[in-house]
Design brief:
single chain, alpha/beta, Rossmann fold, DNA polymerase, domain 1, 2 domains, globular
């Protein structure tokens, strides 16, 4: 979405902020690509080397769907093997190496948490959010989280469940893909699109180009 096409950034009153993770708070595409390649090499799967750009191109979707879209042409049993084992290998490598936080995220989350309860809803695999919390030290800033790996449910369903169990009345959802926008829309939740992430968005309550800009908007 170009700057000229953006509507004036403004938000309705909110009582909480729910974040997507990859492409919104950090980037682990290079580490995940290495994880996929490790599994490919281990099982001698006949496929080209996976790149960070491959992972970035499907980021935001459930892990198994990401593998299917990147590894077109592999037989079903290898898709399943690569999907199952790369979930674990990605988590192992990220626990060792961490990810790349976007500028302003550390300071911004602390500022936002001082005013709002913070949450995460992601299409990542089980254990991934916990690794994000552990490697960044951000666990005290977040009240709750949910992911596809835990429930095998769509993001809209996981967002709905998190809102219900935490009694949120006016949450804001922040993300970087059309899937995030759709999940927010399905729950009647205003959506802020972060343009520095992996995806695109057609209509959002607001569009920001940096995490600092998000904080200025939410804290104004």
């Amino acid at each position: 979405m170009s700057a000229s096409s953006r509507s004036k950034n403004s938000l309705p009153p909110i009582d909480s902020v729910v974040f997507d993770l990859d492409g919104t708070l950090w980037d682990t595409c290079a580490v995940c690509a290495q994880g996929w390649n490790n599994v490919i090499a281990k099982h001698q799967i006949d496929f080209r080397s996976i790149t960070a750009a491959d992972v970035r191109g499907v980021a935001g979707k459930p892990h198994e769907l990401c593998v299917r879209e990147v590894c077109v042409g592999l037989p079903e049993h290898q898709i399943k093997l690569l999907s199952d084992e790369s979930e674990k290998e990605d988590n192992r490598l990220i626990a060792e190496r961490g990810g790349v936080l976007y500028p302003g995220v550390a300071e911004g989350l602390a500022a936002l948490a001082a005013r709002y309860p913070l949450f995460i809803v992601s299409n990542c695999q089980a254990g991934y959010i916990e690794i994000f919390m552990a490697t960044t030290g951000f666990a005290p800033l977040f009240r709750d989280h949910e992911c596809w790996g835990n429930t095998r449910r769509p993001k809209a369903d996981n967002l709905r469940a998190l809102i219900a169990r935490n009694g949120l009345r006016a949450p804001l959802f922040v993300g970087d893909t059309s899937g995030d926008e759709a999940a927010a829309s399905a729950n009647g939740v205003p959506f802020v699109f972060v343009s520095y992430g992996f995806g695109e968005c057609r209509a959002a309550a607001a569009v920001v180009d940096s995490f600092r800009q998000l904080c200025d908007l939410a804290l104004s």
